[in-house]
Amino acid sequence: MEAFNHQITKSLNHQITWLGRLGNNPLAVAGFLIVGLLCLVALSAPWLAPYDPQAIDTWHILESPSRAHLLGTDPLGRDCLSRLIYGARISLLVGIVAVGIATVIGTILGALAGFYGKWTDGLLMRFVDIILCFPSIFLIMAVIAFLEPSILNIMAVIGLTSWMGVARLVRAEFLSLRRRDFVLAARISGASNARIVFSHILPNAVAPILVATTLGVGGAILTESALSFLGIGVQPPTPSWGNMLTEGKDNLEIAWWLSMFPGMAILVTVLGYNLLGEGLRDALDPRIKSD
Amino acid sequence: MALFLYLLKKILTLGPTFLGITIISFMVMHLAPGEPMSLQADFNPKMTPEMRERLRAQYGLDRPLHIQYLQWLKGLAVLDLGRSFSPDRRPVWDKIKERLPVTLLINVLAIGLILVVAVPLGVAAAVRHNSFFDQVTTVLVFIAYAAPAFWVALLLMLYFGVHLGWLPISGLHSLMGYEQMSGWEKLLDWCRHLILPVLVSALGGLAGMSRYTRSSMLEVLRQDYITTARAKGLPERKVIYRHALRNALLPLITILGLSIPGLIGGSVIFESIFAIPGVGQLMWTSVMARDYPLLMGNLVIVSVLTLLGNQLADMGYALADPRIRTGVQTED
Fold first, then answer.
1. Contact A145 B295 (CB under 8 A)
2. Taking 70 as the threshold, does the pLDDT of residue B123 lie above it?
């Protein structure tokens, strides 16, 4: 019992220390604040946005930033700030759902490969190697060409083409964990494979998965914005930061504000997720420091 | 001998990976909703069911899938990727062939730029670990990594092209007066057009590469043999450039190989922004026109190129590092 209590305090201490380490890292805190603020903006978009993001106003076309329209208006006279705020919803939604899909696929395939090893591992990892040979944007475009470009399809396709990193990571964790004493002990006490995987190995592999997921959201948001920019992602009139930049490109000579602000929004968002991810990596695993 | 065996093993694994690429490309093409034929047929109002069947038979789409795959593979072996759906009906390979050199040129220039800028930057940051310079480059790298390349392209076009008027913002060469230029003027014209695209496509790799160089260098500087070299009284410059850098550069070969898909993928974006007639732009137009043969041809060629690039990087690594080919594990 004594030993057990000791174990609990130890694990509590562990939790406190990694949160503490995260809090002591100013870059990670900045990342956390950016991500938190963005989620808040996305959730409260209807109350924050000064105008209806779709409201066309032909009297105020392509106006530069002013007091009435803080970030100016677009070629249809829509308020850019309001579109930017609603765009946060799309970016975060696509980013998080796509990475969720990728994480589930990657975790399942990685766990299968790492747990069973041998030919299962060989086959699955070969499959990963093959998929990695496709420049992902080419693969995404090939699939999108067959489908209607909708938000749902974009999320699915980005998720389906970005699980390989997670799969490799989970496999490596499983390979090293399945030989540990506590797994052996669980096996001897008669635990089923499913139980060993879900309640013994997987919880120990959560930290690296969390780091990869956080870093992945930034990447997914970048991919979505690039696809929308090219016109094969989120379709107008739904505002997304990527398709807002298409309008910026079309009016490059006359309206700089159309190109400036959506790009900064993407930059800050991706930066936030990357800082948070790197911070989590340093905090959760003091052995692997990024430098 | 060990090297020869290693290379042989590498080449043997190339085959299955290549087959895998073709199978996945073929599956994407045939299992996606709406077969490659239907669009061409849908556009034709006079299409009767019988004509549709005849067309299917003509394209071989009525045969079982595995036969179709073998047929397609046989064509691929002689670079026959079918004909484009576009009105000119030209062979897909011809279309890709004439656009490949531009894309490869830009990517090679970008890789060159990445190596020339990122490696010294990473080394300098590692040598001056935690200095002001190190912190500034770290922040810049984070920003460059998070910035969408197409947005940076827009800003550069806005500033250097529109505002300052220094650089052209689209195409590979000037449209007016290009024919009258002398050889040197033509070259200069090309260079001016290539500056922005190369810069933009190198940006992401630049950030990643300098970061990797930095951490790889820091790792090496911690090793015992560096301490030994310093203890021997070697000048610091010699320690850094002769002893540390050579070892720190090894893992970068692999990183470079892994960054090839990203670079080629990026060409879709910057080629469409800068109106450069390369493979990326071809891919984009084929998606827009739903030109399936062209689309799949692009996908296969680009992924095979990526595979070859990765293999070259692997082999380069084996040539440079004897531990890889002999399979000797070092204790960490």
1. yes
2. yes
Closest CA to B32 of A131, A147, A159, A163: A147
Instruction: Compute the residue count for chain B.
Output: 332
- For the complex shown, is ipTM > 0.85? no
Asked if A134 is an interface residue toward chain B (Cβ–Cβ < 8 A), one would say yes
The single-letter DSSP state of residue A291 is -
CA distance A226 to B150: 7
State the nearest Cα–Cα gap between A289 and chain B, in angstroms. 10
Q: Give me the half-sphere count of Cα atoms (radius 13 Å) on the Cβ side of residue A139.
A: 26
List A residues 194-233 in contact with B (Cβ-Cβ < 8 A): 218, 222, 225-226, 229-232
Contact A279, A27 (CB under 8 A): yes
Among chain B residues, the shortest Cα distance to A271 is held by B146
Here the tokens at position B117 are 């800028």
Neighbours of B331 (CB within 10 A): 3
Helix (H, G, I), strand (E, B), or coil: what is residue B1? Answer: coil
Give the span between the Cα atoms of B143 and B138, in whole angstroms: 9
CB half-sphere exposure, B127, CA atoms < 13 A: 14
Q: What is the DSSP letter of B47?
A: -
pTM of the predicted model, to two decimals?
Answer: 0.85
pLDDT of A123 strictly over 80: yes
Distance from C-alpha of A46 to C-alpha of B331, rounded to nearest angstrom: 58
Cβ atoms A124, A167 nearer than 8 A: yes
B269 Cβ contact partners less than 8 Å away, ≥ 6 residues apart:
A137, A226, A229, A230, B149, B150, B153, B280
Give the number of other Cβ atoms within 10 Å of residue B27's Cβ. 12
> Per this entry, what is the length of chain A?
291
Give the tens place of pLDDT for each residue, B268-300.
888 888 888 889 889 888 888 877 788 888 888
